[in-house]
Amino acid sequence: MQYIKSATSARDQGYLDVAASASDAENGKKGMTMQQDRRRPWFTLSFLITTGLITTLLLLLVVLQTDHTSKEVVSWPEFQGGSRVVADCGYSPEEAKAKGCVWDLMSFGWTHPACYNKAESEKWLKDFGPWKWYLDLNATQEVAEKDLPYTELVYAEQGYHVQHCLYVLKLLHLAAMTGHPVTDEAIPLAHTGHCTKMISDPAYLDFKHINTKVDLLLARCVTLD
Predict the structure, then answer these.
(1) Per the UniProt record, which residue ranges are transmembrane (predicted)?
(2) What are the backbone dihedrals phi and psi of residue 83, each rounded to the nearest 5 degrees, phi first?
(3) Whole-model pTM over 0.90
């Protein structure tokens, strides 16, 4: 401001005082420099604080995410679920019928309506059945389908074995998405491990081969928690 006043005064007098103008200009520059110097520490401090806060937040997010992922991975093998039983079919076909359970060929067992998926079972039977059933591994004594609900043990084709596994895995997937109860057969990790290993094994590609021992199931309906 001093530099501007000095220049205006010299112009009013009709001449330019070079020495005065130079001095005033220098004073103006010093004033501007001092103001800039006063502003610079505050700007630097604000920048450092802001940068520090952002860095801290990013590090916190990384730590939380890493900790969350680590806990999830560790907890997977320890959790089986199925501890809460919603309904059961007793210990015999007669008791199962008395409890209102229905025969589900895809599970090869009696299943309570609380965890029986009629539409899915019928679709699977239509798309992939029928299969043959025998009382012996040599396939000499065939069992009629109407007798299966009361037969404790049969031998089935490999094709049924594969479709049974896939059926149970799909029901488990549906239960995980909806919270719907599922049969207790679907819960153990050992069952999933058995199914995935069997399906991927090239030794079991002959779907007509009689090689599957099937026990009659009297299912319990359980939740995934």
Answers:
(1) 42-64
(2) -80, -20
(3) no
